[in-house]
Specification:
Blueprint lengths: L3 E4 L2 E4 H23 L8 H24 L1
Helix pairs in contact: 1-2
């Protein structure tokens, strides 16, 4: 399993490349969740957004390690 990616001769952690991509996914999901009324059911929307980011980042890291190895 590779935990780092060679980017022009510099070894970069894979999570450093996944985090901005997942942040953009979360930024696109946030208005959809607000329009659907899900935030009315959530106690703390900011904590929910953080938990969503962590879950999506973990899922992306898990899937990338499965498909890249």
């Amino acid at each position: 399993m590779r935990n780092d990616i060679d980017l022009f001769g510099i070894l970069v952690p894979a999570l450093l490349l996944w985090a901005p991509a997942i942040y953009l996914v979360c930024a696109l999901l946030r208005p959809l969740l607000a329009r659907s009324g899900l935030y009315r059911l959530v106690w703390h929307p900011a904590l929910f957004d953080l938990a969503l980011f962590v879950c999506l980042l973990g899922g992306a890291a898990l899937l990338s390690s499965e498909f890249m190895s």
